Amino acid sequence: MRPLHRLVVFDDAKYVFYWKKEHTPAALQEERQSNRGKGHASRNCPAIRRIGALVIILNFTAMKFVLFVFCFVLSFLSGYSQVSKPTQPTAKELATAKSLATKGDVPAMLNMGQYYYYGTGVVKNYVTARQWLTKAATKNNVTAMLLLGDMYGEGLGIKRDTVKALEWIKKAAEKGSADAAYQLGEMYETGEGAPENLQEAVKWYKVAAEKGDADAMIALGFCYMEGDGVPEDRMAGYDWFLKAAAKGEPTAMRYIGDYFSQSDMGNDCLQAIDWYMKAADAGDSLSVKPVGVTITKDECPTADKAAIAAWMKKLADNNNPDACFYMGGFYVMGIGVKRSAAKGMEMLIKEMELAKNSGAERNFSTNNLFTLYNSGKLTEEHQQRLLTWFEQTAGRTNDDEMMSVIANIYINKEAATTADYKTGFEWATKSAERGNPGGCFWLGFVYSKGLGAIKKDDVKAFAWLLKSAQKGDTDAMRMVSTCYESGTGIEKNRAKANEWKVKADAATEE
Prior knowledge:
- By secondary structure, this protein is an all-alpha fold.
- It is 61% helix and 2% strand.
- It has a domain at 404-510: Tetratricopeptide repeat domain (Serine Threonine Protein Phosphatase 5, Tetratricopeptide repeat, Alpha Horseshoe), CATH 1.25.40.
- Helix 21 packs antiparallel against helix 22.
């Protein structure tokens, strides 16, 4: 956000709606490795703190693999269902289960173990839980085996023992549990709870996949795609993704979209978009972004933009933040819909209110709205609506970047009044007090010009501009360089002037 008199005229090429959350291909392998073994509850099971898994995040020009967790546990009856917290038993049900378990009834032993494991109907007690689960596991109950594997792996009620954890999970896998086989493959792939061995990982993934486990199909697809534990075979990887998609797995649908977006896979943008839309409709929130990026950047000229815009609008109306974000861009640039800066503004506001973003990502959305404010495409009424929203939101959230934006707007108003400068200065002060470089810049800018009732003060101007420059603001760096060159607000120092000029040039190139 810069002074308006130094802003270029905004045309469609200047909008940055399609830059959201992009990733670089160079980080692909590094990020995937760094995320191995990090937990995320993609399945409801007790091992989520230990086990990693796989997810693709698309760069839209290259695939970027990141590990994402899949947990897996079996129940006693089906051999394939997930472990979930048991329902609260009545006193009678609890007494019956205990009586039956004492007499050797295996399902009752499992129930007692789970009651104590989760603290359902009884006080949570891992020691007692392990006693009952061990009895059930020795009677070949695979659910009990997996829970024991988790307890030993996490050290719940007993000293952590990864050897025993692996032993119990392997027993469950050998008893035909697809979920256990998948978990075993994950352990061997990540090296969490088992020696890292990609060949063993592939072996167990295949066992689980051939039993119909969709998560294992996806994991196996990744192994083939990356040549992990098997010779690289992207077609075989695609086939496994396709099998998982046929089972209704939305993330697999997204991965197929990723597959078709790659140049070495034919770069079939229509197929890619179709799969992304299927994935999003099936509940995969990450699949909205690649559609929005592809259409906004016009990377698929033959796509039916009107149909895609209607689809995106439906998702936006259903409060999907990313759909609101890209629909905002569609309206502003007239992609598949009649151009309307006002509707684009409302969509972008809605995205920010829904997403509750923070940090750099929120600043990005704020900057997009600021760009739209200065584009000349909004009526005065809509500009005022946006400014009011900025002020209300900044006041409610203490968003320092938004405060800086507000300061910018007031200070650079056409025919700005003394009251405008005062208001801008107040917002800049609030922003600067929170350490925002833009807020510091605007305080320095106002002091350097002596705007409104604020008296010109070169020393204060330089102090604030220096703070802004030290925080990375390139315009502040250039003004600091000028101050050193001319001796304005600081003793003349050409070496320092050149130093800040070099820093500004380097920052601009980045």
